[in-house]
């Protein structure tokens, strides 16, 4: 058998194997992105836009909405997690950067106010972007997300906790609307 024939056969086998891998791959494989869903409303935390400082609201789950898909960044020396939005945001200087779930103001704990709206800002590693899973309920798979700086939990506007478009706020009073769970997103 000539070397040319061997090379052709190897090429054919490689092409068939590659086609098999592509066709056998699941159409909706899991990703490392997830939605943060409110347990009461079943709606997902969603950035209103992809601009720095945009408010976080709850909206119906949509696998194509990258502003409601998050990944976790761990932080050395702490159990606190940083939630990074899948879609890049436009910073005030016009640059496209990673956006993180954040408090609206970088002020010390005593100046943090209950009821302030949660926002997405450029990821900077600050404590206002670090969240602890607290009050974990293993039977429902839910957690409260407590901010490391303010020590307040993410909540949904208490006037309409199950309504689409209701804003996510920080709250220092325990509410049932503070329970969240992570739902992994299938790839499109």
From TrEMBL:
Superkingdom to which the source organism belongs: Bacteria
Gene3D superfamilies linked to this entry: 2.80.10.50
Signal listed as a keyword: yes
Swiss-Prot/TrEMBL keywords: Signal
Coiled-coil region(s): none
Signal peptide range in chain numbering: 1-29
Name recorded for this polypeptide: RICIN domain-containing protein
UniProt organism field: Lentzea tibetensis
């Amino acid at each position: 058998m000539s070397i040319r024939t061997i090379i052709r056969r190897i090429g054919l086998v490689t092409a068939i194997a590659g086609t098999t891998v592509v066709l056998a791959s699941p159409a909706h494989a899991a990703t490392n992105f997830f939605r943060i869903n409110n347990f009461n409303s079943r709606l997902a935390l969603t950035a209103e836009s992809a601009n720095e400082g945009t408010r976080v609201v709850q909206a119906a789950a949509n696998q194509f909405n990258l502003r409601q898909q998050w990944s976790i960044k761990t932080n050395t020396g702490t159990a606190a997690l940083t939630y990074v939005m899948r879609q890049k945001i436009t910073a005030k200087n016009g640059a496209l950067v990673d956006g993180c779930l954040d408090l609206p103001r970088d002020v010390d704990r005593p100046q943090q106010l209950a009821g302030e709206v949660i926002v997405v800002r450029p990821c900077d590693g600050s404590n206002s972007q670090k969240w602890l899973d607290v009050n974990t309920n293993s039977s429902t798979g839910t957690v409260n997300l407590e901010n490391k700086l303010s020590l307040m939990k993410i909540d949904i506007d208490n006037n309409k906790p199950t309504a689409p478009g209701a804003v996510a706020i920080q709250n220092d009073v325990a509410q049932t609307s503070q329970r969240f769970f992570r739902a992994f997103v299938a790839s499109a």
